[in-house]
Automatic annotation (TrEMBL):
Domain of life of the source: Bacteria
Family matches, as InterPro entries: ATP-dep_Glu-Cys_Ligase-2, CP_ATPgrasp_2, UCP005522
Coiled coil: none
Gene3D superfamilies: 3.30.1490.270, 3.40.50.11290
Entry-linked SUPFAM superfamilies: Glutathione synthetase ATP-binding domain-like
Record-given protein name: Circularly permuted type 2 ATP-grasp protein
Amino acid sequence: MIGKQLFENYGAYSGIWDEMCYQDGIRSQYGQIYNDIAQLPVELLLQKDKQAGELFMNQGITFTVYSDNAGIEKIFPFDIIPRILTGTEWRHIELGITQRLRALNLFLKDIYSDQQILKDKVIPAELIATCPHYTREVHGVKVPHDLYVHISGIDLIRGQDGTFYILEDNLRTPSGVSYMLENREVTKRIFPGMLGNSKARMINNYPLLLHDILGSLAPQQLSNPTVALLTPGVYNSAYFEHTFLARQMGIPLVEGRDLLVDNHKVYMKTTAGLQQVHVLYRRLDDDYLDPLVFRPDSALGVPGLMSAYRKGNIAIVNAVGNGVADDKAVYAYVPAMIKYYLNEEVILPNVPTYSMEDADARQHVFENMEKMVIKRTNQSGGYGMVMGDKAAEEELAGVKKEILANPRDFIAQPIIKLSTVPCFIDGKLQPRHVDLRPYALCGPGGIKIVPGGLTRVALSEGSLVVNSSQGGGSKDTWVVDL
């Protein structure tokens, strides 16, 4: 059998947007892929699929599943058929993400200073007061260039009608960009020439862009500021990414024990003595950054780090306190933020969201549980989520009790059947649901978004949960100009 027959046998789901197929055939952006793969024997594609797995294994491209007692280190699953977006689609995504980040940055600046948005009752004050990630310790702290969000991975999904929706804002320590870059490198290895034929836009300059933006955030005007990446250590789920990015940028990878604070300045211990650090790209949650301010039992952070931050002697990327804008209950108000701060119409809409603190919304959700996904407002990675159409009656009854006991901790959204893409599974092309996480970098010179991002795939048939921690995989993502 040859590749052409794989495409002919591909069965897209009825009533769901498929990224490759539509009623009259294959979408134009997939035309070159079809031409390149159509004449290849399926046996060769199976070899390439195996080769891709070996490349990931040999390069140690892994993640950690904390709930798996059998062996927590997993090779990141990769599908060899790329997901392809047109330049026009990408432009719409770019504009929408840029707009959203401008508003979110203004919100963070406001919420940690004058709180005008609360005074004007655009967002309920009690919503912020009850947010566990609202960090009072940084209220009034001046950050370089008034930028709070430097690196974001905003999750998008595509609904049945082809509309892109924002699913989630990741503004604290977003992960996955190393997988995006490695996916592209593996694609180049297994399909040499195919990228060139399709004229997919380049993404390999991300580490350079990131390094330039990190350097530009130094509190003092320095020609060569010292930038370091702070990792929790080898047992963190994204440790591969930490080492990858530090190596790609040519900056030191440090743990809390490698740093000390003296006279409100942060220093790195080196064989040549102490060296001042001006920018810290932290991959460590706020609670663990400084045991003198946050969790006193944290052995991962740096005692005194927050004093240096308050004095303006170090830039921390992303800013401390961004979690207030990541709260899923606050997410529902981002369209209102865009209108309030920018006076613009929303380009990329939210998924419709029901606050469980609203009695009418709560009653509607309870009456339609089988059509809803219930989410805890301060969990991520696919945890704390209940799919109403998959849950047993006992589980739904338990969730209702939890919601009634503490409605602030929950939101509900209608289940949206995510768009599908063709995946090469068991020697066949099969549709699987996907989302998209583009990576945006915000610096004094503006917002830059690498074309494509990370496409995450729900590898189990019919599943809508794409998180790697829940058994998902990923694809190389191309943006092509037709």
